[in-house]
Amino acid sequence: MKKNSILGFALIAGILIIFSWYNSKVINEQQKNIPVADSIESAKNPAAPANSVSDSLSDANKVASLTDSLKQKDSSFSIYKDSLLIKASDQPEEFTTLENEKVKIDFTNLGAQAYKVQIKNYFTFDSLDLNLIREKTSKFSLIFFTNQQISTSNFAFEKAELTDSSLTYRLFLDSTSFVEYKYILPANSNLLKFNVRMVGMGKHIPRNITTLDINWNLDLPRLEKGYDNEKNYSTIVYKFPNSNGVEDLGLRKDDAEKDIRTKVSWFAFQQQFFSAILVAKDNFNVGLLNYRFYPLGDSDGNLMHCEAKMQVSYNEAEEVNIPFEYYYGPNHYKTLKSYDQGFEKIVPLGGWLIGWINRYIIILMFDFLGKFMTNYGLIILILTLLIKIVISPLTLKSYMSSAKMRVLKPEIDKIAEKFPKQEDAMKKQQETMALYSKAGVSMFGGCLPMLLQFPILFAMFKFFPASFELRQQGFLWATDLSAFDSVLDLPFTIPLYGDHVSLFALLMAISMYFYSRMNIDQMTTGGPQMAGMKYMSLYFMPIFLLVLCNNFSSGLSYYYMLSNLITMAQTWVIRKYFVDEDKLYAKLKEKAASNTPKKKSKFQERLDAAYKAQQQQVKKKK
């Protein structure tokens, strides 16, 4: 082989070796960037249409999460292509404070968001400052696409302006393009105005982008004494535009999620007595809301983790403004109502009838009495007395009806002796109804007045655990009427009952037992069914309510106890001064003897028809 040929083969072999080495290096570099590129590309150009709101939001969230993880693994790593963003992603954290008479808000430049929110003039159950948002428990992000994925929580904004009541942050993409967050905190208000302004972003954001993503994660802390009570009245609430009511993800659940496909005006991360609400003045388009509760005894003192993934509209323009509002404050009905945005609907006061009683009777009476006294134990006492006075005619009517049926019992017994056979049961019933009709006694006269009182009882059951006015208000041995009172802490936990003894719940159960005992003679008939009802009234219901109310609001147990005692006093007064059963019996006998039966009711007519049909069947058999 010639020398030139050997040299040529050697050069070719060298070139192949060098090319192979370089190509392998390039492939390795490309493999490292595939996850980021694929995530961004899939978020920009999804392969298939989204089946749900969570699908449409997930790609942006995946890229944001991937960006965070890459930065954590390598602090020198940056996927950002703009030098100003690279600089903003590596700036130190700085804090700025806005405050007024009601709230104190510490802002961080990282994401230009609230870092800590203190609700002034209120304290936790263990007497600490009430921080609705604590350090490192909240993360708010505006997510959008330019030539890359942008999640604002990853960047340090520049502080552009600061006054006594306002704060402005800016995140620059270039010298003329920026995202601006402006916060305004008016005096004596729990409402924080928040405006997102995007200037010159049209040259960065693709024209086919019509929505921006809003992500907000928040860990709400434990603030109240009773974990179960606090958990049972905490959830996420949201409101549709032009709707009078609100929707929620449910109460008394360990976790819940809602995929919302229509516009939403606002949503609230609601703790039992305090809430963080985000309002979109131009509405959210769609959203995904979810929460989960932390277990009792969480080491960080967390109650629930809340998450909202929402979308807002975006229209390309030289300057785009997206207005929001935050509410940080108490779930006090009148305070929430004063903002005229339907916030007061988050207070769980019951359905249309129960809610109406609470809003327009109970709360108004509570507020009126609160102007003259500050002791809420006395306010509950006076409120109970007023309610009992108002419904006393129903109580009197119910007792009179029961007394009439009771004094007629000898006549009913005579009818029973007249028709002892089972096949005469229909005829016995007819005669009994005829007697009642002549004497002017209604079988349901004692039931209907009692049924009319039930809405008030249910209204109180809803009102007391949700009443902000009772929070941390003490009375006698109870230090907080909105939570359980404990006179004895047990070294163990009794299933359903708890690990303590509530004295108000115990006194309520005892009062119910004696009230039932006092009225046991009102039950006019015997038999196994009535014996069962007596057992339920005397023993089962007091024990059931004792277990149920042991962990409930002590104000509720106190109210039920007062209601039982006042009703017992009313019953005693009625028996002693309003009803003479001997005279009543003589009057009813005279009326029954002199009166002709009234026109039969439809029930009596059906009873007569059934009796005739029964007699015809007997004749046919014979």
Q: How would you describe this structure to a colleague?
A:
The chain folds into 2 domains: 86-348, Beta-galactosidase, Chain A, domain 5; 357-594, no CATH class. The protein is built from 16 helices and 21 strands. It has helices at residues 3-44, 53-73, 83-88, 227-232, 333-337, 352-370, 376-390, 392-407, 409-418, 425-439, 447-466, 503-518, 528-549, 554-577, 581-594, 602-621, and strands at 95-99, 103-108, 113-123, 129-133, 138-145, 149-151, 158-162, 166-174, 177-184, 191-199, 211-221, 235-239, 247-248, 255-260, 264-270, 274-284, 287-293, 302-313, 319-330, 488-494, 498-501. Strands 7-8-9-10-19-16-15-12-13 form a 9-stranded antiparallel β-sheet. A 6-stranded antiparallel β-sheet has the order 6-5-11-18-17-14. The model is unreliable at 30-53 and 70-77 (pLDDT under 50).
Task: Enumerate the strands of the largest sheet in spatial order, edge to edge or round the barrel.
Answer: 7-8-9-10-19-16-15-12-13
Instruction: State Rg.
Output: 36 Å
Estimate nothing, just give the exact number of structural domains.
Answer: 2
How many beta strands in the DSSP annotation?
Answer: 21
The largest sheet is: 9 strands, antiparallel
Based on helices, strands and strand pairing, what is the structural class? alpha+beta
pLDDT average, as an integer? Answer: 80
Determine the CATH topology of the largest domain.
Beta-galactosidase, Chain A, domain 5
- The CATH class of the largest domain turns out to be Mainly Beta
Secondary-structure arrangement, i.e. CATH architecture of the largest domain: Distorted Sandwich
Proportion in β-strands: 15-25%
| Spatial shape | elongated
Poorly predicted regions are: 30-53, 70-77
> What is the number of helical segments per DSSP (H or I, 4+ residues)?
16
Which percent bin holds the helix content? Answer: 40-55%
Distance between the termini: 133 Å
